[in-house]
Design goal:
Length: 264
């Protein structure tokens, strides 16, 4: 018996060609700033060696040493930073498949300890109570609302009653919630709104004095109900009473005469 492969090439099964490996993916890029230095950290989806570039412009100009051991967690030190300056940086990661480069990031070094870094949001937001107003006493469920603004964006608004948190912290407009005033004592209370932005700047609105009068409202309602009941009772007492007369009899009570009447 002849081997079929002797006269024609035999087809041999083979695994499909392996897809070309992509460069590593970068993520979680951040920087921690110190007095005259910063530490940049980032991650990769698989072990790689990395380094950072930095400088006062997007041209960078300074490169940190390339890591010698592949890892999925990376860090680089930026030394010799000047106070009050803003710096640009980006990170790199390299494997045998290629190199990945991040977008541009910036860091600002504070001009002095405790000062905000250059370019940071240092302007506090503002808020004002819209309702209720400092007017007539209120009772029951009342809508509390505030108007809050910031040059970058408002993060949260927290209403305060006599300095303590009132209701939930609100993270989006409209900044309003329903307040059950019956849970608090009658009298004058200080209502305000604390507002905070994403940079941590905070401010408190001017105080609005709100007077609660739930006991007065309850007494008034009870008095009104009692007065209404008395009025209904009086009206019923004054109504004329309608007497029912007996039905007239249709039959005669005198028996009919059976003969002529006797002479007088």
């Amino acid at each position: 018996m002849l081997n079929a492969c002797a006269s024609s090439p035999c087809s041999r099964s083979s695994s499909p060609p392996r897809a070309q490996e992509a460069p590593p993916a970068l993520g979680d890029v951040s920087a921690e700033i110190f007095a005259s230095s910063a530490v940049v950290t980032w991650g990769t989806d698989r072990p790689a060696v990395g380094q950072a570039e930095w400088g006062e412009t997007e041209a960078y100009g300074i490169t940190t040493p390339l890591e010698t051991q592949p890892s999925s967690s990376h860090s680089a030190s930026l030394n010799g930073l000047a106070r009050g300056r803003t710096y640009h940086y980006r990170v790199r990661a390299r494997t045998a498949a290629g190199e990945a480069v991040s977008s541009d990031y910036t860091i600002g070094v504070p001009s002095e300890p405790g000062a905000p870094p250059p370019g940071a949001d240092s302007k506090a937001p503002s808020a004002v109570i819209m309702t209720p107003s400092a007017g007539p006493p209120v009772a029951g469920v009342v809508a509390v609302s505030a108007n809050a603004t910031d040059d970058v964006g408002v993060a949260t608004v927290q209403f305060l009653l006599d300095g303590a948190a009132l209701g939930p912290a609100l993270s989006s407009s409209p900044y309003t919630f329903l307040w059950n005033t019956a849970e608090f004592g009658d009298g004058s209370h200080a209502l305000a709104a604390s507002v905070r932005d994403a940079a941590g700047n905070a401010a408190t609105s001017p105080v609005v004095r709100v007077t609660l009068a739930n006991s007065v409202a309850s007494s008034t309602a009870a008095h009104a109900a009692s007065a209404s009941a008395h009025a209904a009772s009086d009206a019923a007492a004054r109504a004329p009473q309608k007497l029912l007369s007996p039905r007239a009899s249709t039959a005669s009570t005198t028996p009919p005469s059976s003969g002529p009447r006797p002479p007088r």
